[in-house]
Amino acid sequence: MQTTFPRLMLQHATQRPSAPAMREKEYGIWQTHTWADMATEVERIACGLHQLGLARGQHMVVIGANRPRLYATMLAAQSLGAIPVPLYQDAVGAECVFPITNAEVRMALVEDQEQVDKLLDIRAQCPLLGHIVYDDPRGLRNYAEPGLQSLDQLIENGAAFANMHPDFFQAQVEQGRPVDVAAMFFSSGTSGNPKGVVHTHSTLLDRAQAGAEFDRLSSREEVLAYLPPAWIGQNIFSYAQWLCCGYVVNCPENAGTVSIDLKEVGPTYYFAPPRVFEGMLTSVMIRMEDAGRLKRGLFHYFMDVAKRVGPQRMDGKSLGLLDGLLYKLGDLMVYGPLRNTLGFSRVRVAYTAGEAIGPDLFTFYRSIGINLKQLYGSTETAVFVCLQPDHEVRADTVGVPIRGVEIKLAENGEILVKSAGLLKEYYKNPTATAEVLTADGWYHTSDAGFLDSHGHLKIIDRVKDVGRLKGGANDGAMFAPKYVENKLKFFPFIKEAVALGDGREKVCVMVNIDFDAAGNWAERRNLPYAGYTDLAQKPEVYALIQDCVEKVNADLAADKLLAGSQISRFLVLHKELDADDGELTRTNKVRRGFIGEKYQPLVDALYQDKTEQFIETVVKFEDGRTGKVSATLKLGDARTFNAVQTAA
Length: 648
Hints:
With 648 residues, the chain is an alpha/beta fold. It has 3 domains: 5-200 and 217-253, Rossmann fold (3-Layer(aba) Sandwich); 274-462, ANL, N-terminal domain (Rossmann fold); 467-637, ANL, C-terminal domain (GMP Synthetase, Chain A, domain 3, 2-Layer Sandwich). Helix 1 (5-15) packs antiparallel against helix 2 and helix 2 (35-52) crosses helix 3.
């Protein structure tokens, strides 16, 4: 698409000025911002930023949740030819230092007092950071830091400038070109410092438009923007595609009201990483366990029906008369009310991405009539590489290459991609850029996979993570840790899992229980506990997790390729894995290598067939303080199964 973000915004404001562009919930009431409102606000913010000295080609950090004025500020920066750099709002100050200094950031827009305090704490390490503008003034009345001002004041100053220079804003927008840099997204930084992924207006809008064409998106869609804007997935769905299609983006009041706001909005187009879908399923299962016997029995009966025939129905296949009647009855009594409870009663298209989703979890949502599909892409590819067509959805693939995408496989099974949505470069990192971009325009994804006979892409794991067992009965067997972890995480009692086994004779896992689900399970059995660490080490909880592990092993035994990846031993960790402790990325991906080093005594104990092991771990609290958590962990064995022999 040969245009820019600000031009698209002005196009909507000209053609449909009174149509809603965004809604924001404030004090329990939804406030509507029209496209005309958005254009006026963007112009005033752009003029205010110009007065502060923001110039073409400079970077501007944006930190906060999804808010119309934060999006307007990103558009304002782009209107001036500057480059917005969204950062994660839950990142600690130290994590912001490298992006701010690396991008030579002189100006930041932040949401509230928490983010202001964060930047003021690190300001001495970021000498170029001269201006900090905040949106929410609560708690900031008595701050007198140099360069600190409210967005309200900046807008007021910008409005006065715009009145004096009525042609300034339009002239700035007209200078922008599709090939100009539009935004920079910092990667998760699973190893070393994060890399700044540079994208142009053209790369982002081309992929946004290709995705919109694929699913026939229009201005009638409703979207809920609740994930971090710093994640390119949220940015594409609620910013790039928003401007391509002109649909309505709804911003929740806060993180705690998302589930309520989801039901109120009833989005037609929905996007979430697997972790969100896992959390929703866990809450459903907890509620059902608390329900009466009759209601619980009906739920499980009709869910069995849904699991058997629901996916066929979603794929457009005809059902037998009896199955069709049973599904309709189930839809009336269970599936319909469940979709409504989840906020999915109007969803036409739902996507999951960011990491692989467990096939059982994926099938659950499709079986109850939600058109959940998978997509494949990354920050470097502007998200959209492969999408699943309606009626061609399978749990073990991520779809077909969409318009403008070419895929080929390297000799080691790595997926290579060529498309108009590839990154321009890694900022100030030509070595890293050369490692992923070939001279003839192919991007190295670092993912291992293959195209099946139907042209669908199947992802096995990260190339560096796919390994082999060494020694023992499964010598040479393939080991795909993420695949094993995702199967474990389908169970509502397991929040996170870390699978180990490459170069070893057997597979072992470390598990995080889901405190809410496991706690509810324990309370219904009158099992007392004093907190996470205490609950995690209860013998009854170990028996519960062992049962989950052995069910996964039974499933793996039926997979000829991965039957050797069955889990031999396991333990339940004494603390939850946390991004603040370096164990997860800010997008909640497991940092498997870091965890293996941090918990080396536990890894050794698993492979030395010990029955228990003491561990003491340093943890970081939200206020920056540190403490220690210690426990003697039990180590359990799990039953494995002979590989199922399939007919030739």
